[in-house]
Specification:
The chain has 228 residues and is mostly helical. It is built from 10 helices and 2 strands. The longest helix has 29 residues.
Length: 228
């Protein structure tokens, strides 16, 4: 956001720098600098006005192209094209990671990388997915000790916060290593379902208390507390 009052404090020579070719200022700043100079009585020929408008238009086009490229980086290119490669959908992986933890999410994402023949990202994803559980078991108790609570809400749930962080990392791994603009079809949901059911069973059994900090288990405990 360009502050007009800040530009008004600049001298005429400083403002004229905004009107030069290949300046580094945003188009809004160029437009405001031009208007301020006109208000101060500077005369611009029709050729000058046309040149300045071309600078502004060019800068706006550049900004628009930059926004489009940024959107393309984050966009999910899932399609119905029967010729596209089959992968487990990104949104499904993120949802599973939030609810059940990074282990099932990392398995699904790692399998995607293997299918894409990206073996190092697959290994990195598997290592992160399983090791994050150890980190989660350290962070959640710490958050509880430093921020007590009396009732359950998403904002006050350390389990949800940490699960969301883990899911975000998996999302960023997808963005970083899946080829840009890669169209893909949703793979069968059977494997995600089997992995999810297996993970739910582990969470319920909770061997050695490993999954005590899981968001789903915490959600169940708090519901039981609220309705008891």
């Amino acid at each position: 956001m360009v502050n007009r009052n800040v530009l008004k404090k600049l001298s005429g020579n400083e403002l004229e720098k905004y009107l030069k070719e290949d300046n580094r200022f945003v188009p809004q700043a160029v437009q405001i600098a031009f208007e301020i100079l006109e208000e101060r009585g500077k005369h611009f020929s029709d050729a000058d006005k046309l040149r300045i408008q071309k600078i502004i238009i060019k800068k706006k086009d550049t900004e628009e192209q930059k926004k489009i490229k940024e959107q393309e980086v984050w966009k999910d290119y899932i399609t119905e094209d029967p010729n596209a490669i089959r992968l487990f959908p990104r949104e499904l992986i993120v949802i599973i990671a939030v609810l059940l933890g990074t282990i099932p999410g990392s398995i699904l994402l790692g399998l995607n990388f293997i299918k894409l023949k990206k073996y190092f990202p697959a290994l990195l994803t598997f290592i992160f997915g399983f090791s994050f559980l150890l980190l989660q078991n350290l962070i959640v108790p710490f958050l509880y000790d430093s921020n007590s609570r009396n009732f359950y809400t998403y904002k006050k749930s350390p389990e949800f916060f940490v699960s969301a962080v883990g899911a975000l990392v998996l999302f960023l791994l997808w963005v970083a290593f899946v080829p840009k603009k890669l169209p893909y079809r949703a793979a069968s949901y059977i494997i995600p379902l089997v992995i999810s059911l297996g993970m739910i069973a582990l969470i319920i059994i909770n061997p050695n208390g490993w999954f005590s900090t899981n968001f789903l288990l915490s959600f169940g405990r708090n519901l039981k507390f609220i309705f008891s």
